[in-house]
Amino acid sequence: TMSDRIAVFNHGRIEQLGTPREIYDNPQSPFVSEFVGQTNKIEIEGKKINIRPEFISVSKSAVYGDRSVQGTLRDAIFVGATTRYLVDTTLGSTMISTDPKDLLVIGENVTLSWDKNKEFLIH
After folding, report:
1. Quick one: which of 13, 28, 39, 55 has the fewest CB in 10 Å?
2. Where are the alpha helices (H) located in 1-105, listed in sequence order?
3. Sheet-wide strand order for 47-51
């Protein structure tokens, strides 16, 4: 079972208090965003945004959202129920996706895309 309220502590100090969904979808600090899952950190239009790997589609060329970035597929790591796709992007960072739309080959150029409403800012 899951708690209805969670307190995330960092060095004895409460970083965030909220429901599991609030903490996962809207973490209030970098510590909380990493504590409750993995996140991609990128800068777009002068803003530092975060997006979870499960909300990023990776395809050979098609775009599946209002934001996209190009890159090269570096690795595909099988982790049981999912596969993590590591992409070296033209933004100069590596992003992770767990939502493939095509059969992908390591080393090929790919497109990462996502819906802007799935991004979150870290304060």
Report:
1. 13
2. 20-25, 30-35
3. 40-44, 47-51, 120-121
- The answer to whether position 44 is within a domain reads no
One domain for residues 60 and 30: no
> Within 10 A of 97 (CB to CB), how many other CB atoms are there?
29
- Tell whether the model's pLDDT for residue 6 goes beyond 90: yes
Q: Is 33 in the same domain as 60?
A: no
Residue 56, exposed/middle/buried by CB under 10 A (0-12, 13-18, 19+)? buried
Name the one residue in this structure whose structure tokens are 């796709």. 85
Contact 44, 92 (CB under 8 A): no
Q: Based on the domain organization, do 62 and 99 belong to the same domain?
A: yes
Which residue segment(s) compose the domain that 6 sits in?
Answer: 1-37
The CA distance from 56 to 118, in Å, is 9
Q: What is the pLDDT of residues 34-56, one digit of tens each?
A: 898 899 999 888 888 899 999 99
If we measure between CA atoms, which residue out of 117, 93, 76 comes closest to residue 41?
Answer: 93
